[in-house]
Amino acid sequence: LLHYAVTPKIEKFDGCNDTNEVILNVVQKVLDLGVHPQELSLSRWDALFSAMNSDLSSDVVELLLNAGANPNLICPVGKERITSILKAIARDDLEKVQLLLRFGANPNMKTLFESKNGHLWKDPLLITAITNRNIEIVKALVNAGANVNTVGDGMEINFSPLEWAEIYAKKDLGCDDCDDDICKKECDAAIAKDEIVVFLKKS
């Protein structure tokens, strides 16, 4: 029941002045009935993880956390094993990331991913935030205690967060096609000024 409450069909709320307030009240009423937020759906997801798949406000997420939802529960998605904070990071939702961290989400949690060829590996949350190029989420994770020297597990090449930051800065700058010394020198200088790279070097 709680899963249906946190994954409403938003189009049914057309014309509603405050959709978030309605959903918040429905979730509260379901919790008042004694439904625990850690109860799992048939997909083995809790309500908190389900809520991350929708565009609900942070108020609903905070309500679930206050009611006892586990911010570190690992939920299966195929062969992958994903947490609520990973979903928030993937959606570039800084507010929910900060909220989950405040309620005890582990900033050093590693996520089990599956590649297109079926290879499984684990990546730290920090590296996911870096590959998304979100400096504010990177800062939030590091300030919460994320290890800036962590690497993934099961990859053929394990780059550090700083190395990943430099790789993605290089892509953003279009430096992959540099084929002369002047271009490479200019790109190296620009990468060194990238805000994520600068932040990680100082951390």
Architecture overview:
The protein has helices at about 1-5, 20-30, 45-50, 60-65, 85-90, 95-100, 125-130, 135-145, 160-170, 180-190, 195-200; strands spanning about 75, 80, 110-115, 120-125. The protein has about 200 residues and is mainly alpha-helical. The strands form two sheets. A two-stranded antiparallel ribbon has the order 1-2. It has a two-stranded antiparallel sheet with strand order 3-4. The longest helix has 14 residues, at about 20-30.
Q: Quick one: overall form?
A: elongated
N/C terminus separation: 44 Å
**How confident is the prediction overall: mean pLDDT?**
86
Number of strands: 4
Tally of helical runs: 11
User: What is the N-to-C succession of helices and strands?
Assistant: HHHHEEHHEEHHHHH
Tell me what portion of residues adopts beta-strand conformation: 5-15%
Helix % is: 40-55%
Taking the sheet with the most strands, its summary is: 2 strands, antiparallel
| Spatial strand sequence of the major β-sheet | 1-2
Over all CA atoms, what is the radius of gyration? 20 Å
Which structural class should the secondary elements be placed in? mainly alpha
Residue stretches low in confidence (pLDDT < 50, at least 5 long) are: none
